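Thread: "does anyone have the structure for this chain?"

Original post by V.I.:
We have the sequence but no experimental structure in hand. Need at least a predicted one for the grant figures.
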Amino acid sequence: MLAKLAWRAVSGLSPRIAWKAARLYAWKGAKAIRAHRERLARDELYPPFMLIALTNACNLRCHGCWIGKDGTPHALAPEDVDRIIATGKEHHAHYYILLGGEPFLFPQLGEVFERHPDCYFQIITNGMLFTDDNVLRMRKAGNVTPLVSLDGWQGENDRRRGEGVYRAALAGLDRLREAKLLFGIATTVTGRNLDEVTSDEYVRLLMDKGAMYLWYYVFRPMGPNPDPEYCVGKGQLLRLRERLLELRRRHPILIIDTYWTATGEALCPAAVGLGFHIGPQGGIEICPALSFACDTIRDQDGDLFRTINQSAFLRGFSGFVDQRTRGCVILEHPQELRNYLRRHQAHDTSGRGTALAELLALTPRASHHLPGHEIPEDLWLYRLLKKNLFFGMGAYG
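Reply from O.Q.:
Generated one for you, tokens below.
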């Protein structure tokens, strides 16, 4: 399988783009993880990668999306984005996930990765805006990997994301493949689509379209319209874990998740300080699904390292999670999470002013923490990657 994956990379990617991914993502990513572990040993908190929501503007209105899009859109200033990245580079962090909203609606998007050629950028996008100019700009830069959201076949995808989105996204994938770009697919697993998005047919389609990796997220019922019918049950989560391992054995495409360690234990990346989320107004949030912040990128005279390292809110989250679960406290303990946010006087950064009440109204549900049912990775490649790299965090999860 590894030989087939290597052949797909050699035949489907521009050599320059493949080399940049290996050097900027894999090599520098491994160094970032080592530096992160050294910081933890010194009791310093700063993540090895960062999620940056450039804007909350979006051209879609997906069911279950928690990002506020009504009213005047918010966006980070380009100089703020540059300062975030420059601070990260000082601490061996060269990998950034750019999201929104829809990041291609951020006018200066292309300038971000062009101004930082020593960094690697993943752009989480709905795939509607892959114009010739945008594709050409990504190819010239070479340090960008688009991650395109697709949630199953046309019926299920468009039910959640809107009529015509499926066909438009597939057309966008064709443009990326023709440009020999490295790109992946972000699939949100729901209680409705689990079987189809983990089917061999679905994975084969994405490989035929040129995707080199498939990134699975699990739906979380957040926002003003949480759509609980999309929630994934405990038995389904166990089936998802089993299916991921089966797909990894059968298909020459990287199957990525952020939920389980190499030994099959549950993991919350934010709880172990792997990455935080910066909202479009500059708030430093625990993860994309939690629109709450106590600190901003402008605090401490703009010293982002000092702000994060000294944040009782961000530091305390690890202990809060450890006392309750190895999984997702949003799903398992929403009311206790609300109390944690109130205790730290966290500000609602959703733009709606109702996020705390929305959290209180949630029904506790199962997450990927399934004690007694741990299934270790059975392929050496994934054990190696999970121990030495990182697989990002879910923007739409």
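V.I.: this helps a lot. The chain has one domain: 2-269+370-388.
O.Q.: and The mean pLDDT is 92.
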